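Researcher: I'm preparing a figure for a lab meeting and need a structural model of a single chain. I don't have an experimental structure, so a prediction will have to do for now. The sequence is pasted below. Please return the structure as tokens so I can convert it later.
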Amino acid sequence: MSKDVSLFIVAIAALFAMERAVMAEEPAFFSVGAGVYDVNDDETTAEGRVEYRFSEANKLWHFSPFVGLRANANGATYGYGGLGLDIFFGKRWVLTPNFAVGIYGNGDSKDLGHAVEFRSGVELAYRFDDHSRLGLTFHHISNAGLDQMNPGTESLLLMYSMPFDKFFSD
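Model: Understood. Here is the structure written out token by token.
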């Protein structure tokens, strides 16, 4: 998926959300995920991810900030920060288009052409009664033309997001 298509999907979802979102007071989340890096190319390997997603109280307009770190089995790392938009479909389903920027180190993995990389993608998750979520996330990462070499990569992961305050409750 090209960067332009990813950004178009995020923009359409954001516009849709302004009209149709059912906003809920969502907590901060600690999210973990595992899946496949470079899912549609020739350097496919395992990927893991951790994120902190800020609570509704920290929203920037309708967008919730997040920070994260991902790594793959070949030593690539990517530290990033960005914004996501929760679009609720009833009480249970949440679609979250998101965008981030970060610093990439390729290790022995795919060279993406530049240290600065941009991530765009979407997560579709099921929301449990305790607000925790289980979902699939798909992301595209590219340097957006900061370097002549810009192969990009895609990842597909299963993510679990647990309310952060559960770490401190009895």
